[in-house]
Design brief:
Blueprint: H1 2-18, H2 49-52, H3 63-71, E1 77-82, H4 86-89, H5 91-97, E2 108-113, H6 116-124, E3 130-134, H7 135-143, E4 148-153, E5 160-164, E6 183-187, H8 192-203, E7 216-220, H9 223-226, E8 235-239, H10 242-248, E9 253-257, E10 266-271, H11 272-277, H12 279-298, H13 300-308, H14 318-328, H15 341-357, H16 367-370, H17 377-386
Parallel strand pairs: 1-2, 6-7, 6-8
Antiparallel strand pairs: 3-10, 4-10, 5-8, 5-9
Helix pairs in contact: 5-12, 12-13, 12-17, 13-14
């Protein structure tokens, strides 16, 4: 029975990914009733678990785990997410709207943030217990002694790019070396854009900032500031949707992007104590994450509307949010969120080594050590419920890819600039 449900759900997914954007429409309210009850004909399709491909009944967390969360002061459970990166966070407002954790027996509050520093500070301060952000700040979190375990990746290769003003004499990353002066590059310090610049500089012979003869220095600013290419900067390093915003508005032009140098990602993670003492809560969070992803893919127009209904996301139009969902969520197989521990620990060993060498991390850690902060088994269990196979490698790597993770420059692979149609799903090997 589970297999039949799963296959029908996959057909829904494949169809949703291949259809053009739906026109704007009012979203009907949810039908009342308990999980597993019949859904009325007038209910919005995304409100029907079977329509989005989730098998019922839901698995509730145990009374013991609820009691444990309450004993920690983590009831309701607090979740933080980006209101500024739809490619990372489109599933979060959907999870909230559909009450997917409440249906699994967890009371929860959601808080959105416009940028990385406050979302990081909230987790460090214990104000949130589940959150997500880039790999660069994730390892800083762990290094500070705040116990965290990642259970999924956020997005697949969300673009980071180097932008200059339209009249700039710079036309490629190679031009940075011959600029004849120390350049000023604006970016958000501690974001994965900072490591992108280091990785790009290594491949292009640039002297890192802070040393003698540095090719450039960093000017710290928010992504929203950087996307405007402010005066006093020669270039900015920004991630999407800020890349798209600056290009669409004619504020800048792209002279380089992250893809040859660095597999840029982030992690969905939670407090390690939950992983150790209430693993069924961690599993419920993982399940709800993927169910929300299914709902986004089933009705991306509705997901975009929910995303921009947050006042903190008011800088983005519904069309802009939808474009990011199409670029990073529906473009890839839904198994893109699986965290391949060996792959990502090998890539992030470069990040940690650079941070440690710069004195920003206390501990030197290798790939084997980093993998201990990953818990991919939760999504493996989720995929089993759906009848999906765990992908043998990240979904963006083509079969026979000739590169070696951790050793750029990387040969071509699937990303938002090379894929023109969504990856087929399910394809051979995608089902159990």
């Amino acid at each position: 029975m589970l297999r039949r449900l799963s296959v029908s759900a996959l057909v829904v997914l494949a169809t949703a990914c291949s259809q053009p954007p739906a026109p704007d429409a009012a979203v009907p309210s949810r039908a009342s009733g308990t999980a597993g009850a019949a859904v009325s004909a007038e209910a919005a399709p995304a409100d029907d678990p079977a329509a989005r491909g989730w098998p019922l009944p839901y698995t509730p967390v145990s009374d013991a785990s609820v009691a444990w969360l309450k004993s920690q002061g983590w009831w309701p459970l607090q979740i933080g997410y980006f209101a500024d990166v739809p490619g990372y966070s489109a599933h979060m407002p959907v999870m909230k709207d559909l009450k997917l954790l409440e249906k699994r027996g967890i009371e929860v509050n959601y808080t959105s943030f416009q940028s990385g520093p406050p979302i990081l500070e909230a987790f460090l301060a214990g104000q949130t217990q589940v959150t997500h952000y880039g790999d660069f700040p994730f390892w800083n979190t762990v290094d500070k002694g705040v116990p965290a375990v990642a259970y999924a990746v956020t997005g697949t290769n969300v673009e980071a790019a180097l932008l200059v003003r339209p009249d700039s004499p710079l036309h490629s990353a190679a031009d940075l070396k011959n600029a004849g002066k120390e350049l000023v590059i604006g970016t958000t310090l501690g974001s994965y854009c900072e490591f992108y610049l280091l990785a790009m500089g290594t491949q292009n012979g640039l002297a890192a900032p802070g040393g003698e003869g540095a090719s450039y220095r960093l000017a710290g600013m928010s992504m929203r500031e950087a996307q405007l290419l402010p005066a006093g900067t020669d270039a900015v390093a920004v991630f999407d949707p800020h890349v798209t915003f600056a290009l669409d508005k004619g504020l800048g032009r792209r002279i380089d992007d992250v893809y040859p140098y660095y597999f840029a990602t982030g992690y969905e993670f939670l407090r390690r104590e939950i992983h150790e003492h209430a693993p069924d809560v961690a599993q419920a969070v993982a399940d709800a994450t993927i169910e929300a992803l299914l709902a986004v893919r089933h009705d991306p127009d509705r997901a975009a509307a929910l995303y921009v209904s947050d006042p903190r996301a008011k800088a983005w139009s519904k069309d802009a949010a939808r474009a990011q969902i199409d670029r990073y969520v529906t473009l890839y197989k839904p198994t893109y969120k699986y965290l391949h521990a060996g792959f990502w620990s090998a890539e992030d060993a470069r990040v940690v080594a650079a941070q440690h060498a710069a004195g920003r991390l206390k501990r030197a850690r290798d790939a084997t050590d980093l993998a201990t902060d990953f818990a991919p088994d939760y999504l493996a269990t989720t995929f089993e419920k759906l009848g999906w196979a765990v992908p043998a490698r990240p979904v963006f790597l083509p079969e026979g890819w000739a590169g070696e993770v951790g050793k750029p420059p990387y040969p071509p692979y699937d990303n938002a600039r090379t894929l023109t149609t969504p990856q087929a799903f399910p394809a051979a090997g995608d089902l159990r």
